[in-house]
Amino acid sequence: MSDISAIPAAAPHSSLHRQSARTKKRNAAEKRFQVYGMMAVGFGLLALVVLLASILGNGLSSFRQTHVVLPVELSEARLDKSGERDIEAIKKVSTFGYAPLIKDALARGMEESGIAIEGLDEKDAGEIISKEAPAQIRDFVIANPDLIGTTQEFRLLANGRIDGYFKGRVSMESAALDSNVSPAQLQLAEALKEAGLLTTGFNRDFITAPDASDQRPEAAGLGVAILGSLYMMLVVLVLALPIGVAASIYLEEFAPKNRWTDLIEVNISNLAAVPSIVFGILGLAIFINFAGLPQSAPIVGGLVLTLMTLPTIIIATRASLKSVPPSIRDAALGVGASKMQAVFHHVLPLAAPGILTGTIIGLAQALGETAPLLLIGMVAFVKEFPGAPPEGFFDPASALPVQIYNWTQRADPAFVERASGAIIVLLVFLVVMNTIAVILRRRFERRW
Amino acid sequence: MPLIWLLALLAALSAAGFVMGRRRAVLSSGGDVRRLHSLPNYYGFNVGLAVIVPSLLVLFCWLLVQPLVIEARVAAQLSPEALSQASDPALVMSDVRRLAEGLDVAIAEGAMSGDDMRNLEADGGNIRAALGAVGVALGSEVEPSVLVAAQSYIAQVRTGNMVRNVTVILLALAGFLWAMRLTAPGFRARGAVERAVLALLIAAASIAILTTAGIVLSMLFESINFFRQYPISDFFFGTTWSPNFRGNSDLGILPLLWGTLYISFIALLVAVPVGLFSAIYLSEYAGPKVRGVAKPLIEVLAGIPTIVYGLFALITVGPLLRDHFAQPLGLGESGSSVMTAGLVMGIMLIPFVSSLSDDIINAVPQSMRDGSLGLGATKSETIRQVVVPAALPGIVGAVLLAASRAIGETMIVVLGAGAAAKLDLNPFEAMTTVTVKIVSQLTGDTDFAAPETLVAFALGLTLFVITLGLNVIALVIVRKYREQYE
Amino acid sequence: MKDHFTVESEIMTETKITARNVQVHYGDTHAIKDVSVEIADRTVTAFIGPSGCGKSTFLRCINRMNDTIDICRVEGDILIDGEDIYDRKVDPVQLRAKVGMVFQKPNPFPKSIYDNVAYGPRIHGLARSKAELDEIVEKSLRRAAIWNEVKDRLSAPGTGLSGGQQQRLCIARAVATEPEVLLMDEPCSALDPIATAQVEELIDDLRRQFSVVIVTHSMQQAARVSQRTAFFHLGNLVEFGETSQIFTNPQDSRTESYITGRIG
Question: Which residue in B432, B438, B441 sits closest to B463, CA to CA?
Fold first, then answer.
């Protein structure tokens, strides 16, 4: 340790109260670095805000819908020529038979309110009412055949372009260029609104009605999709929770350390990162082509999502089993319980809140998953509600995210509004589920 | 008897077994349950499990095997002429299956009795019309050989189901009798039940392996089918992608891989710096208040479904980039582009990168930071020269995981990237990816024997192998890194 | 309680660090209670006391390492060469270049041995050329008495060295920035006896150039390496004086109890 003697004395003192030029430079670099960090956080937050604003801005209006309120005469001559009120005979009258009733009702309404628009014939005027309206009246008549011959007031859907006009999507200028709607029709709509025949109100049908065809964005609803998603979530819950918990209990409490369990562990962590579309291919090849389950069925969607959700649930469950201290197990074993009893009577109940939280988060992920469902045929146009479970699990249905995708593929811009509105519904479900998960965690979280 | 009733019956038998097993145990103890080796419930569970587990297992295997056996037998029965006439034997079988299903529906709807069905003659239009009336549309007239095969198919399925139901119920009863005979005070019911439960637990854990096996096998089989019809070298080295459902398609994967990698690269270019810097800022600089607000908000981005990002790309980002960058710069007219998809995917990956980096940065021991600060380094010098280099393997792992996500992402590219397969450098051009083509080849009316459909499985397999490789490497790196500081 | 200590001794050196009425709060905890002390240049000063007595906290005040902890509040004055280091004008970065620190657990960076030592000179811009940097690295490694052991493998990772070598590497790293004060927070607590002996010998050598302040758990170590000793108890500075005097003739009953092993 004699090297020290070779060292000259320490450097001359410099005052701490004066910042050296180098320190100033370094502090500036420090500031810059910090600003980069703030910018990164700001970018992330900005992206979130823009994303939500874009969805809300486009979608909120889908919860409001323009209707034309008209008294419609349910003419016996047209609807029930025999006058016998035979329901089969009434059913034979197609929606085409109902269209003239509406046209007449509208003409009468215009006449009574003294509305006359130049250059607008009766046919064009009729087009401001949705093509869905005859079906609306037909459903009503079939449900109440006794009312044939009376005049009833109906809230008929307005055409999507008219609806768009009152939501700012369509303007007089754009209508002049659009073959689907003319400025004259918009003037008529304005006049009807002033006369109180045209109203805009909450759109309940958007949540409850089934999908509608490409020509009728105003009638399209999420009913089938919500029910389909609900069925799938039921399947996922019933399958993924018990299987996931059983697998976690085995891996965490009983598994010996060997090749097989190693393989399982590696498999689970890999499955968590496999692209979701690959699960769709699996579902198509195994469940549909091999096992012969029907396409578009919630049961297939549920099975595919179960396989996708399992890793999430297993990882969460194992974490919460791990957090139960060994002393609990020792205490149970110490009074003569078997290992199985210790786990099922003591460890599992203590881990339950964590397992539940993980399950809800897994379900929320599954609810938003789209790609695999496209491959198993959920993207088909489904207008019929699936039946009650268990048979309903095998009926064709849609799912929320797939319905959104479906709508983005359609030509009419009104479907963009619908798709954004559907996203709002989807996000509301997700927010509710995640909030429950957070509340559960806060309420039952135990620190050992 | 439909399957659901069989299942219900098994469940009921099992429940009855539980009750009776328990009773028998209590009775055999002479009213003093302390004489029993195990609690009475265990005897009940033992009987219940003996009823349901073997029978369900046999049922499950039966369900898997029966269709295969019957199809093989029916196919063998089909006359060689019928098969040789058809372009593809598989198509004939699918006709048989479809006709059989149609006839089943007709019987179920009451349009036809079982005897009618057996006596049907293939006089053409007849059957087609009869099935059309109950809502089963057949594509073409029914060949006599196909009708015979379909009739035999139905008959065999009926017999098979009958034998199945009887076997399963007998097995359940046998299990019941066996377990009841065992039920005696000396019998170690708890041990037996616990062994059975353990077996169930192991079975549940093995589902992960079954899933992986299912993924690999299903894609492998169909990919082999594909490569029988399309040369493997053309697939992996072809530079044109133009599927044509009339045949003669060019199915080269390179343009798709290029699009995938280009978009993923742009996504990482956005996500890695933003994610890393936000992680650094939030863990090293931000006060608890800012962190408490900003961190969960950024994590909200991770909880948003990808379809939402897809729509965001389609209706907001795409038009924005087109109107303000692509058109003024003369780079393109398309709202869907590599840039659109990449940017939106980058936003999606921000929370993924930032929360992984956050974990990794926090794993760097405080002593390392103290060492650097104690020498008079500023915070940023410490982070750049000590913390980040120390965390580098972990960060690389996180980036690889993010890359694997980007490569496998589907909805954003389906809605944001476009459908044109191109080898191009212009980021404002629409391009397409492997996942987009999997979706487009497998949705819609597809013929499962055509190479244009089967190619999707080969694409899927390629995608699976790439992402699996990335994931394994990333997981190994991250694990090594964790061990270093534990 | 006496709140100010001056030491009459045969080693008359100038005062390097002056602390006046220092108070430290960690959130609601009052960790350091009104400590005043004068630490001499070119001397080894040992802080001893039972765990949690505040000796490490006080040490960390001297180069403002406590700034990195959000909930920590320091009051009172600490002067180095008569300049208040808690003055608003003082940049802690510059201060820490002047007041180096060695930590309890050896914490070499996951870099090469060379880069570990060159780290400080690089960030402070002490070398104008590669040759100068090489010189500083060699000089520092020699000063830390580890040059002979590592001169052939300067590019090997510093984390591959043995515990004692790592700690001497950290000392080399600290002296490479030419500090005037060297703070050592239980530098030997993670080392085996042989490595401890080497580090202690090194500390004794370092005193020729630096004002060394060492926190230690071991009274024997304090007796072996230090000229002066401060005894902390429950956040108070109980006694400060010549090491020989503290260990042979403590003034305060608490010091005596600690030294004789009744509290600790």
Answer: B438
